[in-house]
Amino acid sequence: MSKQTYRICCFQRKFKLKEAEAPDEIKDLFERFSENGIMTAEHLCKFLIDVQGEENVTKEEAETVMESALKLVHEHLNIVFHRKGLNLDGFFRYLFSDLNVSISTDKKVHHDMTAPLSHYFIYTSHNTYLTGNQLNSDCSDVPIIKALQQGVRVIELDMWPNSSKDNVDILHGGTLTPPVELIQCLKSIKEHAFVASEYPVIITLEDHLTPDLQAKAAEMVTQVFGDILFTCGAECLSEFPSPESLKGRIIISTKPPKEYLESKKPSEKDNGSQKGKKSSEEKAWGAEISDLSQKMKAYSENKDNGECQDDEADSHHENPNIQQNIAPEYKHLIAIQAGKSKGPISEWLTVDPIKVKRISLNEEKLINVALNHGKDLIRFTQRNLLRVYPKGMRVDSSNYNPLIGWMHGAQMVAFNMQGHGRPLWLMQGMFKANGGCGYVKKPELLLKTDANNEVHDPKRLLSVKTTLKVKVYMGKGWHLDFKRTHFDAYSPPDFYVKIGIAGVAADSRVKKTKAIEDNWIPIWNDEFEFPLTVPELALLRVEVHEYDMSEIDDFGGQTCIPVSELRTGIRAVPIYNEKGEKYPSVKLLMRFEFVI
């Protein structure tokens, strides 16, 4: 036990900094699964089966866990023991350790990877080359490398002629973003494509090139990627291949190329700016996740005329009289052809039994289409790919609620990866699933048809499948990862936890614990229940905040976990910062249980 001193004017306030101590429920469990104050491997095995829900664990596996736990305790205490089991302190340290986290860390892919690409949610980035905002930040291969290292599988590149019209640059057209050369981006993609995952990388291209530069781009793509480039000639695919069959491959996706079209001037381009002032909380850690039912209700007031404008590269003039001189070597590289989402919705959502395609919608138009054509979207995405991307007004590289796309079957929900905030935390949480490989199998209800060939209706309220019971015991580690006065200049922090579900509208809700005053190691012992109708799409949101009476509450960390990947029982929950980087020491101790 140590003391911390805080100064207020000419006064000093002293607070005791206690060592973390096991909550009473943990002490009771230790008594139950130990003998004479020692938990042996046999006791641990019974604990793993009865409490942690690891029904298939063997005594040999329990002995391996015990050896690792003893090693952990010995390293912490810096002394050598020959004890054959854990005492209470050792058991408590084990529960809080990386040996006992809430989601498996073995990076094992466990979904069926042999279905067509259209059956998966795919980790997708938007304008991947940008280092910051959409208007004047640098273009670079650095954010592309970072995205690939995080497991992102879809990289977006906007191709433009360079200033001398003799080479290809990557930049955000009609803005002041300094360019990066295409060749540099391609080389970095090849070098880092399969560092985090062996499953295919898809490069979506926005093409603003003349035919001679299309040919040059094709030559660069072919030379850099060589045999790992997946092509299918000039023919359209009749069905998408599986991620398993495309391991280690690079795939190009874009619209069939056009004659280069001059862009609008920057002043004409509808980049806009976000209207309205942000709340102090939004400035601190991002906007709260929008309520799905309210969001869609707001759009329902808009008159739907059954038509939609083409969403990809829609800020550029097109002249129908221009001769379309397409570079054939470039066209043959396009394995996933992007179609137009223009004109009557019923036309471009029609499922072609002979060929498959990809279409793109911005976040607002997705909602507009989903309101009256939700079932059509789900049917379309059973065979075809749907890419959703941020609206043009998000010049600050913020993001939107990804669940709206996922619940309608959209595979490529494209996000600005260079920012931070609650929507991006959901994206990072979703793709912790399936070993972090960047491909997550869609729920069966989005893939199947019934006896009448009807698909799932996303507006239909489903019955509760299961209820997730969560208990938040305590947290620790902030005093190691933060300065003494980071949260409060005059006293230790007053932490509380916001916990909730992001999922379909019926499942989404947020609750919170009480605030524990003046304590770096808070003990809450608060319990919550979350009924779930579609647990396959549910993400458990956890945020820690420090209560501040006079100002905005401070951010103390967050995590987001796919409910389908949760390990039941008492688990350590690592906590991450605003950017999704794990804190070295901060963890929560929680308990998870599913009740049918």
UniProtKB/TrEMBL annotation:
<dbReference type="GO" id="GO:0007165">
    <property type="term" value="P:signal transduction"/>
</dbReference>
<feature type="region of interest" description="Disordered">
    <location>
        <begin position="257"/>
        <end position="285"/>
    </location>
</feature>
<dbReference type="InterPro" id="IPR017946">
    <property type="entry name" value="PLC-like_Pdiesterase_TIM-brl"/>
</dbReference>
<keyword id="KW-0378">Hydrolase</keyword>
<dbReference type="Pfam" id="PF00388">
    <property type="entry name" value="PI-PLC-X"/>
</dbReference>
<dbReference type="Pfam" id="PF09279">
    <property type="entry name" value="EF-hand_like"/>
</dbReference>
<dbReference type="InterPro" id="IPR015359">
    <property type="entry name" value="PLC_EF-hand-like"/>
</dbReference>
<keyword id="KW-0443">Lipid metabolism</keyword>
<dbReference type="GO" id="GO:0016042">
    <property type="term" value="P:lipid catabolic process"/>
</dbReference>
<keyword id="KW-0442">Lipid degradation</keyword>
<dbReference type="InterPro" id="IPR001711">
    <property type="entry name" value="PLipase_C_Pinositol-sp_Y"/>
</dbReference>
<dbReference type="InterPro" id="IPR001192">
    <property type="entry name" value="PI-PLC_fam"/>
</dbReference>
<dbReference type="GO" id="GO:0005886">
    <property type="term" value="C:plasma membrane"/>
</dbReference>
<dbReference type="GO" id="GO:0004435">
    <property type="term" value="F:phosphatidylinositol-4,5-bisphosphate phospholipase C activity"/>
</dbReference>
<feature type="region of interest" description="Disordered">
    <location>
        <begin position="299"/>
        <end position="320"/>
    </location>
</feature>
<keyword id="KW-0472">Membrane</keyword>
<feature type="domain" description="C2">
    <location>
        <begin position="441"/>
        <end position="577"/>
    </location>
</feature>
<dbReference type="Pfam" id="PF00387">
    <property type="entry name" value="PI-PLC-Y"/>
</dbReference>
<dbReference type="InterPro" id="IPR000909">
    <property type="entry name" value="PLipase_C_PInositol-sp_X_dom"/>
</dbReference>
<protein>
    <recommendedName>
        <fullName>Phosphoinositide phospholipase C</fullName>
        <ecNumber>3.1.4.11</ecNumber>
    </recommendedName>
</protein>
<keyword id="KW-1003">Cell membrane</keyword>
<dbReference type="InterPro" id="IPR035892">
    <property type="entry name" value="C2_domain_sf"/>
</dbReference>
<dbReference type="GO" id="GO:0006950">
    <property type="term" value="P:response to stress"/>
</dbReference>
<dbReference type="Pfam" id="PF00168">
    <property type="entry name" value="C2"/>
</dbReference>
<dbReference type="InterPro" id="IPR000008">
    <property type="entry name" value="C2_dom"/>
</dbReference>
<dbReference type="InterPro" id="IPR011992">
    <property type="entry name" value="EF-hand-dom_pair"/>
</dbReference>
<keyword id="KW-0807">Transducer</keyword>
<feature type="domain" description="PI-PLC Y-box">
    <location>
        <begin position="360"/>
        <end position="446"/>
    </location>
</feature>
